[in-house]
Amino acid sequence: MTQCEAIGENRLALRGEHNRGAVGPARGLDRVDQSIIEALQKNGRESFRRIAAEVGVSEATVRARYSRLCDGNILQVTGVTNPLELGFDAQAMVGIRTTGAPEPVADEIAKWDEAGYVVVTAGQYDILVELVCADRRQLLELTNKIRSLAGVASTESFLYLALWKQLYDWGARVDGRSVKRSAVKESVG
């Protein structure tokens, strides 16, 4: 096992039930997988029976594919909310600069319940973290906690004032390329 594989396995072990974990190489999806994903992005409560009819496969196929996509950490169907409308008074994106490799810092922050989004980036910041907090006091405590982590050089916080747009319906890629939904329906159906 190479060192990169060992690091990847360690990161995979950190995944919790609600923690998507590190992103690995793209997995191969076919047009049926893509159609199931897109149907659920449009309506996460859509019945397998209706999806099967639209895609042109059996309900059992949709159920099996859905399970495989979820087990493979490709798909997660969940209710998406606006935390600011639910009474969480402080939501922010925090840009973090590290003194070394960003992965250990990202791994630590990804364990926190308040961190709903943790991504290693290229550019001005090494890591971006979205925090959802009960109030500004908790946000301050968490940003101070980030600053105290080994390897953190600096942070910059961007407090959310209003959530203007939040969509998760970008579709899926098949064989390394995006396929328009209408083309999928024509070729699968």
Helix-strand blueprint:
Blueprint: H1 3-13, H2 31-42, H3 48-55, H4 59-71, E1 90-98, H5 103-110, E2 115-120, E3 127-133, H6 136-148, E4 152-159, E5 173-174, E6 177-178, H7 181-188
Helix pairs in contact: 2-4, 2-7, 3-4
Task: Give the helix/strand class.
Answer: alpha+beta
How confident overall, as mean pLDDT? 80
CATH topology term of the largest domain: Arc Repressor Mutant, subunit A
Overall 3D form: elongated
Strand/helix succession: HHHHEHEEHEEEH
CATH architecture grouping of the largest domain = Orthogonal Bundle
Q: What are the segments in which pLDDT stays under 50 over at least 5 consecutive residues?
A: 1-18, 179-189
Quaternary arrangement of the chains shown?
Answer: single chain
Q: Sheet with the most strands?
A: 4 strands, antiparallel
Structural domain count:
2
Distance between the termini: 43 Å
Instruction: Give me the number of helical elements.
Output: 7
CATH superfamily of the largest domain: Winged helix-like DNA-binding domain superfamily/Winged helix DNA-binding domain
Biggest sheet strand line-up: 2-3-1-4
Please write the CATH class name of the largest domain. Answer: Mainly Alpha
Helix content: 25-40%
Number of E-state strands: 6
Q: Approximately what portion of the residues adopt beta-strand conformation?
A: 15-25%
Q: State Rg.
A: 19 Å
